Amino acid sequence: MTLRRNYLHWPGIARALLFLGSVGMFLAGGYLAADYLLDSQREKQLNELGGLALRSSEAVIDYGVSALGEFSDHENHSCMSGPMQKMRLFVYRSNFIKDLRVVRPDASVVCSAFSETLEFDRGWVGRDEMLESEAGNFRLFQVNQFMGTALGVMVDLDHEHSVIGILGVDASLLDVLPDELRGHGSVSLSLTDGKQISSAGGAVDPREDLLRFVVASDKYPIETLVSVHADAFHAWNREPIAPIMLLAGLLGAVFGALLSRNLFRPRSLLDRFDFALSQGRIRPYFQPIFDLGTGKVVGAEILARWIRTDGSVLPPGRFIELAEQNGRIPEMTWSLLSTALDEMKPLLRAEPDFRLSINIAPSHFVSAGFRGKLRDLVKKADVPPHQITLEITERENFEDPDLATICVANLRGHGFNVAIDDVGIGHSGLSQIQRLRADTMKIDKFFVDSVTLDSTASSMIAMLVRLAKEMDMDVVAEGIEEKAQVDALLECGITKGQGYIVSPPIAAAPFLELFAARAASGKLRVAATRAA
């Protein structure tokens, strides 16, 4: 008894464990995903901040080069007292230039606007130690002085003289880190040879676990380096984690509920499809084919629907691919046609010109025994073959076109009609249409949707109508939803159509009511709006 009681409780325990496990997995996955996404966003932000500092530094160089160019064009660069006074005045008026020096082409100093600044230098570089810029005829180098470092810009004046401007890159230009990182990181500006010009931020120990983000200039041989302690980086801007975790938990709960509800379902989808097929729950629905001019219903296409035990209806997109992949299409086709013939027999007898259409897969169409079984089934239903149209879709190609041609001719010889479905978007093209010599051409909804919007679609449809006329074929337009499409198709020469403008696919009983109502209404008309 105890074992039986435990067994009976097991499904509930399993469902609860599965639900909790799903929530836990989604929370863990959500945390990892959030952490990864936030890290990516933080990296992007720090790269952008490094780019901001770099652009500020580039602006200083732009200013310095422009100012030196202006000075070079208008001033006398001798070291006499007059020109020297002008040089000092130029420095006073400049925002970022701290000193001017006239130098020889090898960069040895001839004179300085402020000669006392020469005593602040902690060494001086030669021309070959400077970095040449591709953006212009000037060179950049580090100026190492007792009070710190600065950026030197050397511009050649002629073969004998050059001028150097010493630029002050203030740390405030690099102070771009947010408050949360300011004490745990730094931003520095360096030449591409590794020599640092300036920096801002807290002290950073290179032996610690640091994350580094380098942004290089496209204009000058400079780059910015953003260095941040890893712990501070990961603790920064974590506010989005809470809503992400909440969403992950909700998704885990929904997923877990769905899994736990379906945990002990006894059959696979294919098993349930086979059972539904054996029980006759894969039912034919009928969509009217009508005269575009009068609205009279002249036929119907059989379309499959799965009627579930709770009364809900599954459209073919939910099970047709399953049937195709598992070889169930022939059995389903025969079941649909047999049921449809039985349900529509009174209408077929009362209306000799009414035609019933059904889709046939190309592989089924040319299979052994298909034609014989079709003739037997229609004969048993006591329906004339000319009232049956077999629609061959162009979405699937014939492996043996010659065999397909023979099969079409054979069936037409026995009185059946053959239609080529989805014309214009499938495999065959005009050559296969000409080869098969079918009775009807069904123009795909793709062209119908465009007929009022695109003149190319109208031209294409008109061309297909002319081709059909030359080959003595009928034409039916599929997927009509608007009155304007009816008018445009009539102008193209099409007289028959199919679509929601008259009715969606419906079961036999409402279809017969629709047919009777339209037949009794006297003046038939096409609805101007899409049917519900």
Q: What can you see in these coordinates?
A:
By secondary structure, the chain is α/β, with parallel strands linked by helices. It has a domain at 286-520: Alpha-Beta Barrel (TIM Barrel), CATH 3.20.20.450. Helices cover 44% and strands 22% of the residues. It has an eight-stranded mixed beta barrel with strand order 11-12-14-15-16-17-18-19, surrounded by five helices. A six-stranded antiparallel sheet has the order 2-1-6-5-4-3. The model is unreliable at 1-9 and 527-532 (pLDDT under 50).
Structure described in brief:
This protein has helices at residues 2-74, 81-93, 179-182, 230-235, 241-261, 269-278, 320-325, 329-350, 362-365, 370-380, 401-413, 429-436, 445-450, 455-470, 483-491, 508-520, and strands at 97-103, 109-112, 131-132, 138-145, 148-156, 162-167, 185-191, 196-201, 210-216, 222-229, 282-291, 297-307, 313-314, 355-360, 388-393, 417-423, 440-443, 474-477, 496-498. By secondary structure, it is an alpha/beta fold. It has a domain at 286-520: TIM Barrel (Alpha-Beta Barrel), CATH 3.20.20.450.
